[in-house]
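Pasting as-is:
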Amino acid sequence: MTLILCADVGSTFSKAVLVDTETGAVVATAAHPTTVATDVMEGVDAVCRALAAHGPADDLLVCSSAGGGLRIAVVGQEIEVSAEAGRRVALSAGGRVVHVSAGELSPAAVRELRAVAPDLILLVGGTDGGNARVLLHNAAALARARIRPPIVVAGNAEAADEAAAALAATGRRQVVTSNVVPRIGEIAPDGARAAIREAFLTHVIGGKGLSTGPRFASLVRAATPDAVLRGVEVLADAVGGDVLVIDIGGATTDVYSVLTPQGEDATIHREVVGALWHARTVEADLGMRWNAEGIVEAAARERVALAPATVAYAARVAADTAHLASSAGEWAAEEELASAAARIAVRRHARPAHPSEHPRPLTEVALVLGSGGVLRHSPPAVGAAVLAAVTSDHGGGWRVPAAARTGVDTAYLLFAVGLLADDHPQAARDLAAHLAFTIDQ
């Protein structure tokens, strides 16, 4: 038996799953509060000790969203094409997009960029062989600016090396990768995603001050959302169909979809940017604690009714983020808030970014999976009700899945599937199949 310990170091809790890679079976799980105030390795070591009784782990794979995760700023050429493509790619790479700018960077725009303190800058602009002026101007502006985060250059291939040279001349950390918009109507995320992941591991994790020694940085393989999206990809393969995942957290609600384009979608590029079929969106105003009142405000805009008691409960938990539901009335409020967050987040995920584009085709989704503490730790009926609110939401402007199965990742396995996918692909597939099987039980 070969055991691999997969750990996710979150902002609040560090979770671990011990997996038998020969069978893909879950041997045991553990959790410990993330020790951000001291050294995150204390929490990691605690979950390792908790699982040690089940046998020594042959390897330890870690992903992390501690310290605010991966904060990405996107600098593009025009807001509706390259900047929008960069935003979508940054989200799919596990980043939290904290700033988007378009056009030539002015001194004021550079100051705005510095003020958000990104961990990484994604510099994009121009199709391959197209306009290079804005990309080169922005590279020169960033080269002159007092900006220290690494810069991923993913724009016009014919100008990318010149842009990188300008950055390198002033000592900026930079890497060139393939263009995210090589042609109008096409989005190419893989090169930028890989470069963002490498920059995160090389420059960002070690620079956040999460641990005093080098061990933590050497263990981390990915940003947690990047690992989860990879896990969703493996899960879609295991179930043999499209998958939609809704992760309802204390601060944000993240939506992941892995879709296979059908018919015209597979061959025709209708949109200026192009569709990203393996995608993630982050709704920073929809959270069960820190942004509970954001759910209330968004529900009003979306005409999603909330009971007065739920509105009052949202204000209470926003003021006391450590509060845990303990009564039937509180769980009813939790369910209503989570249902609203899920419905609104999926509406935003499905809707086109621009009026000229088509909604994301979620009709053929085979599995809608819920995740997040409110679903994992609630009575089973809560998770079912929250997901039913999504699959029956005919007022969102998109066609709901016609025959999707629903379930909750109660064991929190998707991150582990993603961590295993590259080096232990069979174990990842087996673990994903185990997750799909447990949903049917």
